[in-house]
Amino acid sequence: MTLAELLEIEAERVLATYARLPVEFVRGEGSRLWDADGNEYLDLLCGISVTSLGHCHPRVVAAVREQVGTLMHASNLFYTAPSMELSRRLSELSLGGRVFLCNSGTEANEAAIKLARRARREGEIVVVLGAFHGRTLGALSATPQESKQAPFGPLVPGFRAVAPVAEAVAAAVHEGTAAVMLEPIQGEGGVRVLDDEVLLAARSACDQYGAALIFDEIQTGMGRTGTMWAYEQTPVVPDAITSAKALGGGLPIGALVTGERLADAFAPGDHGSTFAGGPVVARAALEALDVTADDDLLAGVGERGALLAAGLERLPHVLEVRGRGLMLACELDVDAPALVRDALLRQRLVLNATGPSTMRLLPALTIEPAQIEDALGRLAALLGSA
Questions:
Q1: What Å distances lie between residue 49 and 31, 63, 146, 250, 328, CA to CA?
Q2: CATH number of the domain at 82-292, please?
Q3: In this structure, how many other beta carbons lie within 10 angstroms of the beta carbon of residue 331?
Q4: Which residue of 72, 104, 177, 181 has the lowest C-beta tally within 10 Å?
Q5: Judging by DSSP bridges, how do beta strands 352-355 and 358-361 pair with one another?
Q6: How far apart are CA 321 and CA 146, in angstroms?
Q7: Is 47 left (phi over 0), alpha (psi -120 to 50) or beta?
Q8: Smallest Cα–Cα separation from 225: which of 363, 324, 362, 329?
Q9: Per-residue model confidence as pLDDT tens digits over 276-296
Q10: In the structure, what pLDDT confidence band is assigned to residue 368 with cuts at 50, 70 and 90?
Q11: Spatial separation of the C-alpha atoms in residues 381 and 375, rounded to whole Å
């Protein structure tokens, strides 16, 4: 099937929810992708931080192949070893509490919102401006972005959005607050690192009023910033975290992980999902966890991130580089969406834009230094002619 035929199907049969770029990818390996015409691309996006171990990591592929030929689905009315083992590993590698497995990051955040409301009935959820927590109605209500919320009102009540500054967060929490929900680094908001003072204020206010502190680690988790979870690089330990994206090594899975404080808030029947934690995705996630948890790999994220950030800072039209580890963004004085399109079509470089002047880079944690230098060279050529 040709690209023209795919475009025709989309125009006639697919709901218009995506603005796709005109390339069909058919194969991936490590940090490389190939299109239907055999052209090779360097991937600095990882399917938006999903294939963080590189495309088709051999350990993940082997685990999925074995599991898919053994048992694909049984439902959560019964036990399967992969889901139980994955829950144990996630707990041990993070907050030490209980785990709810689901199918996506948005679903993990929906579960976190419900958990907080279960612990404090009718409680308010405090979020900060610039946040992105998902597109289903509850998660969207926690995403204070007018362009995303406005077409879908009325939204779920009980959410309060404040500026991402310590004083505003502290002032928003009271006896009726169920939770404060934050991304340690705002991903869709332009890779903006929240100050430690904001996190400390949230932790203190939650402790004072008995509210829960929830970190959305859907994009920052699984080694993206150089530690398994971004909260490990902050002075704060949350009461729960949400994970997805890279968790499945390329397959769709999400998770809510609690600390002891919220471990017993849910009762049987409070929440559920037909496909959650199925054997195939759970096996994939187990392999992805084990590979990611390697100390040498995590140390390499910091080294590669520093190399990439330093190179980006030297490029023309780059006003600012921000982020942590291999979660980076450049603020540009040129049109970022146009640059991303040109990078794909002219330099065969996969990136994305989170705003009119913001280019985001989320390369594989396993990207080679030579590939980083190659990417920087391609960007220099592109920006040099901008």
A1: 12, 21, 25, 9, 11
A2: 3.40.640.10
A3: 17
A4: 72
A5: antiparallel
A6: 26
A7: left
A8: 324
A9: 999 999 999 999 999 999 999
A10: very high
A11: 10
Residue listed under structure tokens 């139980």: 84
Give the span between the Cα atoms of 322 and 324, in whole angstroms: 7
Domain positions in the chain are 82-292
What's the pLDDT score for residue 312?
98
| Tens of pLDDT, residues 180-211 | 999 999 999 999 999 999 999 999 999 999 99
Q: Angle CA(41)–CA(47)–CA(53) in degrees, nearest 5?
A: 85
Contact (Cβ atoms closer than 8 angstroms) between residue 361 and residue 308? yes
Q: Which of 327, 284, 273 is nearest to 103 (CA)?
A: 273
Residue at token pair 């904001």 = 198
Indicate if the pLDDT at residue 385 is higher than 90.
Answer: no
Residue at 36: amino acid letter: A
0.90 cut: is pTM over it? yes
Residue 34, beta-bridge partner list = 27, 40
Given a cut of 90, is residue 386 above it in pLDDT?
A: no
